[in-house]
Design goal:
Strand content: 25-35%
Structural class: alpha+beta
CATH topology: S-adenosylmethionine decarboxylase
Helix content: 10-25%
Strand order of the largest sheet: 2-3-4-5-1-6-10-9
Largest sheet: 8 strands, antiparallel
Number of domains: 1
Length: 272
Amino acid sequence: MSSMNKLKLYGFNNLTKTLSFNIYDINYARTASDNKAYIEYIDEEYNAARLTKILTEVSNLIGASILNIAHQDYDPQGASVTMLISEEPIATQDLVSEEEIEEEQPGPLPETVVGHLDKSHITVHTYPESHPDDGISTFRADIDVSTCGRISPLRALNFLIHNFDSDIVIMDYRVRGFTRDIHGEKHFIDHQINSIQNYLSEDTQDRYLMVDANIYQENIFHTKMLLKDFELDNYLFSIAEKDLPEDETKIIREKLQREMAEIFYGRNFNQD
């Protein structure tokens, strides 16, 4: 669909843009005590205070104002943060100039926002979990950035990926609703996109294997990312690969790679 760079809207931009993440960090802990220590480490590393700081920066990046914050740490593990956000208010209700709009990619910078809405939010929930007897621990963070108006959650895409140790990232981006121009015509998207990959930094694209499943006519975009490089020491907790017997190293490597493949493809694989 063509860009709305040169269109003038009637009233507010009513489009809702939602970016959803599932971010996974995989680890191997050899003993029950190691597994407990790893879960405690993750719980401390991604507590409500740090998550609030990350989401505050997300709000700044997309040009939104924070109206309210709710956060909670859970016992024994996990944390949640929810922010109600709005577009920055402006001194006048006049539409921004065409020159300013042409610079938007895929939404305006804070100083070019055209309205003030309080129907947007950012949420994060964490889920530390482990296999009952296989030594595998998988930390998952669910993040949703939902905005109304011209501001776009795609601005925070690379920041979020870089702030988590992500072995697997599964992302969904959807534009819902419509906005109307001054002639009354409906527009169901206001920026060019054919893949979430369009907005990923080069270093991220180099690091991950990526697969798309998009429904263009519905403005629904889905991208899965799997880390390309596999260094076993990055997945071990409290021990190094050089300190393990070769046969055990092989078993651990297979367990970790199977766990990552199952999450990436969304199904269980036989161990035979």
